[in-house]
Every structure is written in C-alpha cells, then in structure tokens.
Design goal:
Elements (H helix, E strand, L loop, with lengths): L3 E9 L2 H11 L15 E6 L2 E7 L13 E6 L3 H10 L3 E6 L7 E7 L5 E7 L2
Parallel strand pairs: 1-3, 4-7
Antiparallel strand pairs: 1-4, 2-3, 5-6, 6-7
Length: about 120
C-alpha cells in the first residue's frame, strides 16, 4: 500500500467563519482538492500538509466536542489497502461510500494499538 497527500480534517459548524479564520487569521492559502470550495468542504495548505474543513453534518448534536480532527491519507485502491491493513494487524471500523455529491470513499481504520485514522480513495 502506498499512501500520500496527508491531511488533517477539522469538523466545523460554520464554514464561512472557519474559512475566514484559517485564511485571514492564520494566513493559510486555499488549496484546491476534489470537492473543495463546496458548501461543506474547503482545504488550505500549511507547508506540506493539507488542513481540510468539513461541515458538521446536520442533525449532529451541537453539544460536546465535534466528531474529531484526525489524520487522513489517500490511497489508489481502498479495498486493496484495507486488505493490506488487516493483514498487517490493523482494523477496519467502517467504510463510507461515495455519494451525495461527495466523490470520496472513506474508511475509518486503526493501527494495531488502536490509534484511529482514515484512508480515502477519490472516485469519479
């Protein structure tokens, strides 16, 4: 498995406010990625890392912390990557298929010690 294009995803409640903060306050330049610039997804470059902003899905409670901010890595073939991950002692917690205008399959996975991260595959 070859991974690339690391990104950290932050879930936000107000995309306009969040974009203004990351762009204007932190001075991060916008970085086009598949889906960026949509109402629910924007990305910025911070040196060699992508900082992605994802709108908190409607219906999720506004109480408590947001879902997570975590590591997300791109792969060419998600199914093959998940097989390699399992063979190496990792675990697959779930897969979200592309749809609803989101051109990405995302798997929530964990390393052998239970540290969670995501693998993503862009689909056309």
């Amino acid at each position: 498995m070859r991974v690339r294009n690391p990104m950290v995803i932050h879930y936000v409640r107000d995309m306009e406010r969040a974009c203004a903060f990351y762009r204007d306050t932190l001075g991060l330049p916008e970085e086009p990625t598949p889906g960026s610039g949509s109402p629910g997804w924007n990305t910025f470059r911070c040196d060699g890392l992508i900082v992605a902003l994802h709108i908190l899905p409607l219906g999720d409670s506004a109480e408590g912390p947001l879902p997570h901010a975590g590591l997300n890595l791109e792969v060419d073939d998600l199914d093959s990557a998940l097989a390699e991950l399992r063979a190496g002692g990792g675990a697959v917690r779930g897969v979200q298929e592309a749809g609803g205008g989101v051109p990405v399959r995302v798997a929530e996975v964990a390393d052998p010690d239970g540290n969670g991260f995501e693998l993503r595959q862009h689909v056309s």
